Amino acid sequence: GGEVQRRYGPELEALVRAARVRHLSYRTEKVYLDWAARFLTFAGYPDLAGLDPTPAIEGYLGYLAMERKVSSSTQNQALSALLFFFVTGLNRELGRVEDFARAKAPRREPEVMTPREVAALLGRMSGETALMAALLYGSGLRLMECVRLRVKDVDLESRRIMVRDGKGGKDRLVPLAERSAGPLQEHLARVRALHDAELAAGRGKAFLRPSLERACPTAAAEWGWQYVFPARGLAVDMRTGAVRRGHVHASVLQKAVKDAARAAGIVKRVSCHTFRHSFATHLLAAGHDIRTVQELLGHADVTTTMIYAHALDKPGSGVTSPADEVLGP
Fold it and tell me: Is 321 in contact with 138 (CB distance < 8 Å)?
């Protein structure tokens, strides 16, 4: 809030500088700032120079767990943000950093839709969100990987998508379902018309990382760097002040999937990530080997992928999207 910014402007700026030096996403930067502000408010706007961060952080984590009853993932996110704020941003030494116990997430089996449920859900969707949901399932994309897709990373000819800077900062190549290629091509033609019109009006620039824009000043206006799923309106880049067109907000797809699942009568707890779980499970059921599925999902450790392995058949070859086999071209 405004009071936190007024009291701790230099300290928060140090957090921002540290985040940008390490090329953290703007989303991560904002999350870290929000947690720092919440912590400082909870602590009663302390004098940071005389504050011992270790017990203060422990107290805040206890408050989140006992009073706010947040999930283990939220508690761990808060801890990561505060460690970054103090250790990386403010260069403070925290005694007993190793004593900060991360909350243990409950072990849950992934929610997986049957092929019939996937078909029923997608059949209740239309337009841009239907295409996005088909990519989540057909290519095993995470939600933000889908909304952040750039035109240059879609290869319609070879039916492949390059996922850039996925979780863990890794790139990976995934299949593009044959049934999605035609609708995607038509969609890109409409996006290209919008882009050309904006260029003619003196706009037409997409959001880019500052380092890339410095290295290639014309990239933001180039067709290949435009978002596959652009936002409807323009927005101000909070880092540079420039007016750009970003990607569609993730909540647009999240709401469409929830509504479609309800309309299809699916009683399972369905989210955008359920498509990714279903992608992996259906590939394994079709006989593809666990290592291949691991690479397609971008998992660093095969044990993460093993949650989808009910039984492993002989290794498969020539991976195609499960969407083509289940839904047809």
Answer: yes
Q: β-strands 243-244, 235-236: how paired? A: antiparallel
Give the number of C-alpha atoms closer than 13 A to the C-alpha of residue 249, restricted to the C-beta side.
7
Question: For residue 145, what are the CA distances in angstroms to 11, 148, 317, 321?
Answer: 32, 5, 25, 17
Rounded-to-integer distance, Cα 24 and Cα 43, Å? 26
Tell me: the pLDDT tens digits for 92-127?
887 655 556 566 656 667 899 999 999 999 999 999
Catalytic (active site) residue 308 = yes
Whether pTM exceeds 0.85:
no
Of 167, 172, 187, 244, the catalytic one is 167
8 is an active site residue = no
Which span out of 50-54, 64-68, 87-91, 152-156 was modeled with the highest average pLDDT? 152-156
pLDDT tens digits for range 288-300: 999 999 999 999 8
- 282 classed as catalytic: no
Residue 227 falls in the annotated catalytic set: no
**Those residues with Cβ within 8 angstroms of residue 58's Cβ, 6 or more apart along the chain or in another chain:** 100
List 152, 160, 172, 273, catalytic entry? 273
**C-alpha dist (Å) from residue 282 to 43, 65, 323:** 49, 37, 9
pLDDT at 281 over 60: yes
Contact of 243 with 235, CB cutoff 8 Å: yes
Distance CA 147, CA 143 (A): 7
Give the C-alpha separation, 49 to 5, whole Å: 17
Cα–Cα distance, 169 to 22 (Å, whole number): 12
